[in-house]
Amino acid sequence: MKYIRKLVCSCCLLLGSFGWANPILNQVPDSLKDKSYQYLFSRVQQSENTKIKELYLRVFLLKAKAEHNWKQQVNAYKTYAHHESDSLKWIYADSMVYIARVSKDSTLIGSALISKGAWFYQAKDYVHALALWTQADHLITGQSNPYQRYKLNYLIALVKYYLDYTAEALTLLQSCKDYFKEDHTRAYLNTLHLLGLCYNKMGDYGRSSAINSLGLKVAAEAGEHEMDAYFLLSEGINQYFLHNNGEAIAHLKNALQVIKRSQNFSSVAVADFYLGKSFWEMRQLPRAMVYFKKVDSIFKVKGFLRLDLLENYKLQFQYYKSKGALKNQLYVIEQLTKAETVLHDNYKTVSKELHRQYEYQQILDQKRKVQSLLLLVHYKNIWVSVLVILVLVAITLVTYNRYQYGKKFDKLINRLEGNISEPTSRQDQSDHKKLGISDEAVQTILVQLEKFEKNKGFLDEDLKAYKLASMLQTNATYLSSVINRYKKKSVVAYINDLRIDYTVEVLHSNRMFRKYSNEALAKEAGFSSTPRFVNAFKRRTGISPTFFIRGLEEKQRK
């Protein structure tokens, strides 16, 4: 759908080129009909108001169409393309080339192809840029304007350098250098700079350094210093490859200060990368990572990356792998995957080389491996979190229980030392009637129970409810009713509580008993088993025998 809209727009623009002269001219305001192309173009360039700029540009195009002036129509579409958004830029660029071809003027066609190629170059589509510039070169070869030819040769060499056709670029640059040397200082400096880069890429660092020195000398003699930072950048890269890392860092930092001000993000990325590599060789890995991250930041924001800069991610991955930083490893692999896609689009002819150097399938395998490890770490973290929570809950419970045990221990000690009196059951005469037992029988049982408690009859291990009733010369029913009413507990609980009260007393008063085991204490108190003793002790005091003994020992030490 997007392509169809683009095609329709192109057709509409082009059809306007073949209309009748007078109807087209009638669309031009009277005040502008007699204005020259130079006047109209200057207004387009000078106006800051978008609507006014569009008005003059529209008049410029209509005037060119009316006069069937192919050159000025091409200039109009070129200007439109220059000022429009990316979506419309290519429509006007196509119109520009089409009109140039209709003119059958090889110079005009070559100029249009050069302009369109420049926009592809700006979009980092080097393959299409090279194709268009190569077509243009065939068209303008043999023309009387040598500067235009050598300028185009320089552009072709530049793209060939990026696409790794370095030897071909070098041949073109040698001829450009000889021509520009005489009267075109800035073009000469640009050519020298690119020559230095080509020698560097070919590993001839001596020639590259010599070219950089020559460039700085020529710039100083001509007073042209705009290229100084780029010669310094090139020399910094040379020094890195010569393992002179200190010199490399000095050159690169000096270059970076100037290049940053010009907002040339691609050169900034290159400088950051080789600064990182220099620090990496010096084993200053954290400092190297600072610059590698800057290269990644430029790639994320601007989408710029060269084939040699791809090593940035390889080194980052090594660093994070040595640190066991799985999330960072995964991020780097994902960025490397994105980078491969960008490089494949911009450098289609070197895609195989890219796969060979960086073993792309292995990168994907490594990504899956890291993802699996991250998943395991995720589950491990969940289990660790659960375990930590359980431990915290356990510690909280233990702390709370200790606190509660402490309160119960203090209460028990206060009672033993007479600070708190034991509540006594109030005997109400009406209680006897509710029991259905005579007052005399009730009083007899209560008196016998006092004697039983005083004589510590409860320490008898074989003591049962029926045996106690027999000892008190009553029946089990009467005994159970009286104990329930006056002691507020069952016969078994009554006997067990007496035994525990006795144990608590002897442990408090006689330190020797504290050395007894629970089993020995149970036997001493008349319990038939240790578990029954421990359960009865906890029910009566709220704490365990062990905790009570430990509390007594700690209290005595204080």
Topology diagram in text:
Layout: H1 2-15, H2 21-26, H3 37-46, H4 50-66, H5 70-83, H6 86-103, H7 106-122, H8 126-140, H9 146-162, H10 166-183, H11 185-201, H12 205-222, H13 228-241, H14 245-261, H15 265-281, H16 285-302, H17 311-323, H18 326-346, H19 351-358, H20 360-416, H21 429-435, H22 439-454, H23 465-471, H24 476-487, H25 491-509, H26 518-525, H27 530-541, H28 545-557
Helix pairs in contact: 1-6, 3-4, 4-5, 5-6, 6-7, 7-8, 8-9, 9-10, 9-11, 10-11, 11-12, 11-13, 12-13, 13-14, 13-15, 14-15, 15-16, 16-17, 17-18, 18-20, 19-20, 23-24, 25-27, 26-27
* CATH third-tier fold name of the domain at 435-557: Arc Repressor Mutant, subunit A
Number of helices: 28
Measured on Cα atoms, how large is the radius of gyration? 49 Å
Name of the CATH architecture of the domain at 435-557: Orthogonal Bundle
User: How would you classify the helix and strand content by structural class?
Assistant: mainly alpha
Span from first to last CA?
91 Å
Reading off the top of the CATH hierarchy, the class of the domain at 435-557 is best stated as: Mainly Alpha
CATH superfamily of the domain at 435-557: Homeodomain-like
Shape: elongated
What's the SSE pattern? HHHHHHHHHHHHHHHHHHHHHHHHHHHH
User: What's the rounded overall pLDDT mean?
Assistant: 83
Provide the low-confidence segments as ranges: 1-25, 349-358
What share of residues are in beta strands? under 5%
Q: How many strand elements?
A: 0
Task: Indicate the percent of residues in helices.
Answer: over 70%
What does the largest sheet look like? Answer: none
